[in-house]
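Backbone-to-sequence.
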């Protein structure tokens, strides 16, 4: 299997060196860029598996880089930024980022987020070949029949719950913002849609979580959105 190739976009030399050294310890191949211009050239010419992106670059904002990459590629983008406000996270995720890590960060958490992104690549490739069903732990979604199952038993889902389950399963490992989800489910982003989303997510959790208060499948990112977790086999 080829080693993952990581593009590190960071203008702070100390942080860039820390991330580079971390990649070396994991035997990942990597390339570094200190500006948005360099990052876009590297993304096009080297086609990395994952981009680790700082938002505060000297020549352009990182959100603009996300938008440019998303115009031609779905390569995973993990933001690593000192911007800790929910609105900053939402803006980056809505632009197309897959994940958001706030500085200062631990090396262990960075590697965990990176493993999630790499697993998602593998899963997406399989789904591109299959697109028949989704299996994750005790959860199974049969896209062909339009049915969901948990621990072998068919789930009695409302149409909205099933649409939510499909949306989350087809983006497993990726944080989906409230805005993105409501646009996909209802075609709008009114405040009452977000309130409805919380209600439907709660009822969906009751059907697929053994303990909804400690969910294994659907993770809440407070103020941001939701993510379906990949259950380790």
């Amino acid at each position: 299997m080829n080693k993952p190739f990581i593009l590190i976009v960071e203008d702070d030399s100390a942080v860039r060196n820390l991330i580079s050294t971390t990649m070396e310890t994991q035997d990942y191949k990597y390339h570094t860029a200190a500006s948005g211009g360099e990052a876009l050239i590297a993304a096009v010419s080297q086609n990395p598996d994952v981009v680790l992106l700082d938002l505060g670059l000297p020549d352009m904002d990182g959100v603009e880089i996300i938008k440019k990459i998303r115009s031609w590629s779905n390569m995973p983008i993990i933001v690593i930024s000192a911007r800790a406000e929910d609105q900053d996270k939402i803006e980056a995720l809505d632009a197309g980022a897959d994940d958001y890590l706030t500085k200062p960060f631990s090396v262990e958490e960075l590697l965990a987020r990176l493993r999630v992104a790499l697993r998602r690549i593998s899963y997406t490739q399989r789904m591109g070949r299959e697109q028949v069903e989704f299996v994750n732990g005790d959860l199974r979604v049969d896209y062909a029949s339009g049915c969901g199952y948990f621990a072998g038993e068919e789930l009695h889902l409302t149409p909205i719950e099933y649409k939510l389950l499909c949306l989350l399963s087809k983006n497993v490992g990726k944080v989906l913002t409230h805005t993105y989800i409501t646009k996909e489910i209802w075609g709008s982003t009114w405040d009452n849609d977000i309130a409805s989303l919380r209600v439907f997510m709660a009822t969906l959790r009751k059907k697929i979580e053994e303990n909804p208060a400690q969910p294994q499948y659907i993770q809440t990112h407070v103020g941001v959105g939701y993510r379906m977790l990949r259950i380790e086999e």
